[in-house]
Write a structure and sequence with these properties.
globular, about 220 residues
């Protein structure tokens, strides 16, 4: 199996304060979730996850943000935190701490609203940072097209690099194909994954990335 384990980091800029804090917050929230009794875990998910049919009715709108910091399993958490750790620090280093926070939260919000638009009557809570992280990945592919992603081929313990635009382009193509295939389906019928949240987050990230690239001239940052 192939796993991304790093990238070409830029050597200067703002410290990755909120990239790190968001990672720690996600882990802390999940430990709190899993430390509760099983029945209470489900109640927490229903209370703090974003339930589409409630959002459409204007109920519990705050869950559009709290849901970004919740996860459904250790595998869900670890996968998201790996991508957050690899890609977010470069974005924050360039755009600054405050802009990164706003960008990250708006990316998560856009992702959730995209999923809700395609499943507006669903009663299944949306949870996870993957939509916000998809926004990070979308911005990254535009801002750092010359960067490389370090990959681990687990079977042979081999490490190699691929261009970021190849890795992220393939990732987005997979999300888009899966999202199209899941049209009209509940997330639980499509592997429990909110594909359209990933798509919406990534497209938001692309737009934000073009803005950041023009503002901070990252077109010329090569690794």
């Amino acid at each position: 199996m192939l796993f991304p384990i790093g990238d070409d980091n830029i050597q200067s800029g703002h410290p990755a304060v909120f990239s790190t804090l968001f990672l720690l917050l996600n882990v802390g929230v999940f430990i709190f979730q899993t430390s509760a009794p099983p029945g209470a875990q489900a109640a927490l998910t229903n209370e703090w996850g974003a339930i589409p049919y409630e959002i459409v009715q204007g109920i519990d709108l705050g869950t559009l943000f709290t849901s970004i910091f919740m996860h459904g399993s250790w595998l869900h958490l670890i996968g998201n935190m790996l991508y957050l750790w690899i890609f977010a620090d470069n974005i924050e280093a360039v755009v600054g701490n405050f802009r990164f926070v706003v960008f990250y939260l708006l990316g998560g919000l856009t992702a959730s609203l995209t999923q809700i638009a395609f499943n507006p009557i669903s009663g299944i809570p949306i949870v996870g940072a993957s939509g916000a992280i998809a926004a990070v990945m979308g911005a990254y592919i535009v801002m750092f097209p010359g960067s490389r992603v370090k990959m681990l081929f687990l079977l042979l313990f081999m490490v190699f690099y691929v261009p970021s635009w190849v890795f992220l382009g393939i990732w987005f193509a997979q999300q888009a194909l899966s999202g199209i295939g899941a049209l009209g389906m509940e997330p639980e019928d499509s592997g429990g994954i909110a594909w359209w949240a990933h798509i919406g987050g990534f497209l938001f990230g692309l737009a934000a990335g073009y803005y950041f690239r023009r503002k901070f001239n990252t077109r010329w940052i090569h690794h």
